[in-house]
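Worked example 4.2. Below are the chains of a multi-component assembly; read each line carefully before continuing.
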Amino acid sequence: MRQWILVLLAVALIAGACSDAPPAVLSLATTTSTNDSGLLDAIVPDFEEQYNASVQVVAVGTGQAIALGEAGDADVILVHSRSREDAFVEEGHGTARYDVMYNDFIIVGPTDDPAAIVGTPTASDGMAVIAATESTFASRGDDSGTHSKELSLWKAAGVEPDPNAVWYKSLGQGMGATLNFANESGAYTLTDRGTYLSQSDALTALGVVVGGASIDENVDPALLNPYGVIPVTPDKGNINAELASEFVKWITSVEVQEQISVYGVDAYGQPLFYPDSEAWSTR
Amino acid sequence: METLGRAFGDALQLLWSMDTDLFEIVGLTLQVTLVALAIALLLGIPMGAALGLAKHLPGRAFIVPLIYTGMGLPPVAVGLFTYLFLSNQGPLGSLGWLFTPAGMIVAQTIIAFPLVLGLTMAAVQGVDPDLPLQMRSLGATRRQIALTTLVESRIGVTAAVVAAYGSIISEVGAVMLVGGNIEGETRVLTTAIVLETRKGNFALALALGMILLTLAFLTNLVFHRLQVRQGGP
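Applying the procedure described above to all two chains together yields the following structure tokens:
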């Protein structure tokens, strides 16, 4: 009798496993900020269900995400470095770039603000002061979108930081590790607001010095941080182009944009990302 | 395959042009690894010899498994504990060793020490048990007995050195956490490889990997010559 039950159970399991077609796999290369903030975990299951797909999220710096796309190791990329995104499309690695959402960068530093930066109007002014006073600054130094933004701000400030200077610490690590370093070492650093907010409980020695308490208080347009989604060109081979374009349609749709607009409000009192797809803006 | 080939070519070119940043990274890697190895040897060899000889030590049934566990410590866990100890909130925060080579040396010493200790102990235990007895009957002191036994087990002890060296020069988790991979200060070969791979600079990452392997090989060549001179394999 017991054997019969086991056989029935096995048959039921096999039948259950076979009833659905195996899910198609979409490989998404994205930045650590979209993944570490928990946004993708919150919205992607809806896509997987609707399209019977399994999304493989590879969360790396924008530099590597773009390299993955160039090599054809990702079907679609979701990154934040506008000039490199445009170059990626121009060089024929991606079909087109679509707006998805934005948030903002802020400069955080020791709560006693030794360089007296609080009150400087723009990020580049603040960074000029950091360089002039040789206050410790922690750089991502990893070719990420945040690192590209930092370099463009130094350029605007008219400063060319020497990576071997004692005050300039080029870490080559992710945003979380860089914030921990700044917290331990009394350093200033440039961060996206989302990662800072999601980690702020542990960052007791840090406070916002440029960019204010929310995106509405951030007066510097240079600190805007737009994210774009780009399907990789199908001619690289092994690219799931159909699913990639469904993903783009899905993430830019009004319904998903709505979900993005409320993500994080419960936990942090403000959204971590602000949707701005074409469908959302013209709804 | 094409990318791999190109990366390999670029890697050779980079090695050829040996720039100063590269020298700095290689120099620090050797400095941290060799200092940590030296401390681990100074502590581990005498203690390993003593443990190997003290076959009736009370608590041995507990100490030996503890050492064996230590030989397999996950480097990233060692890094985490060292980080927490050296952090400003930790008990040793006042030293200011977090994100410095000194902190990296501490972490790597903790990884290397149980390896040296355990393998030295095993090597000493492998020596003919009659040797210490005979020496004692001839009136040798404890120190003389320990030294002679160590000399007898030198091939096994050299293996301990090789194992410890290999485990810390190739280790990335602990030095990344404790050192922070700061350019020009705490960046070593393994953390640089992780960084360059993340940036998509596969050629540079591959070049660094080749240097790491070459360093390990050259050092092991020296160790092996020592072993051969001692009549080893």
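Take a moment to check your reading of the output against the notes. Chain B has one domain: 22-229. Chain B touches chain A through 22 residues (CB under 8 Å).
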